[in-house]
């Protein structure tokens, strides 16, 4: 019991992986994200197509459709970056992934080039949810930015305390 009382809390910062407009997850026009079925998070409406790592960690998953990247931060926080909505149907077109599963990444490393014009034309939205997928038990405290604009690798989106 005393260990819990004196245990130092740890903090993990999730920085913006894209430049753009920051939106609460509740405003994403897809119930899987807006109703937080996959987890808590935040979203960005990107203004350019450079997706960078929001953390120091490791790439754990890239689906064949290249529309998303799963990362795990050095502290164990699991992050899903889902580029656009209804982008699975694009079958990888519009996405130029620069990393692969098991790659170690540092904050700001280029993960993917996104052809935003192609995504806008062929998918329902370019809005990009950033989801914390391993906090379903609520053991981590998430604090979200009040900022409305994001600068990739500079703007703090989410501060996680465990």
Automatic annotation (TrEMBL):
User: Sorted alphabetically, which Pfam families does this protein's record hold?
Assistant: PTS_EIIA_1 (PF00358)
Where does the record say this protein resides?
Cytoplasm
Q: What is its main location?
A: cytoplasm
Which parts pass through the membrane? none
The GO terms describing molecular function are: kinase activity
Residue ranges constituting the PTS EIIA type-1 domain according to the UniProt record: 30-134
- A single GO CC term, please? cytoplasm
Swiss-Prot/TrEMBL GO biological process terms: phosphoenolpyruvate-dependent sugar phosphotransferase system
Q: Which InterPro entries match?
A: Dup_hybrid_motif (IPR011055), PTS_EIIA_1_perm (IPR001127), PTS_EIIA_component (IPR050890)
Q: Which UniProt keywords apply?
A: Kinase, Phosphotransferase system, Sugar transport, Transferase, Transport
Transport in keyword set: yes
* Transmembrane helix among keywords: no
Top-level taxon: Bacteria
Its protein name is PTS system, glucose-specific IIA component
Q: Which organism is it from?
A: Virgibacillus chiguensis
């Amino acid at each position: 019991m005393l260990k819990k009382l004196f245990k130092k809390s740890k903090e993990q910062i999730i920085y913006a992986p894209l430049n753009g407009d920051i939106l609460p997850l509740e405003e994403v026009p897809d119930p899987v994200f807006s109703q937080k079925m996959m987890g808590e998070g935040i979203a960005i409406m990107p203004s350019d197509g450079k997706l960078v790592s929001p953390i120091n960690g490791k790439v754990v998953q890239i689906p064949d459709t290249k529309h998303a990247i799963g990362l795990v931060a050095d502290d164990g926080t699991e992050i899903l970056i889902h580029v656009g909505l209804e982008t699975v149907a694009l079958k990888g077109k519009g996405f130029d992934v620069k990393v692969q599963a098991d790659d170690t990444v540092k904050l700001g490393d280029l993960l993917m080039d996104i052809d935003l014009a192609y995504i806008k034309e062929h998918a329902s939205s370019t809005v990009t949810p950033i989801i914390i997928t391993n906090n379903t038990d609520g053991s981590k405290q998430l604090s979200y930015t009040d900022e409305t604009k994001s600068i990739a690798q500079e703007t703090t989106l989410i501060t996680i305390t465990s």
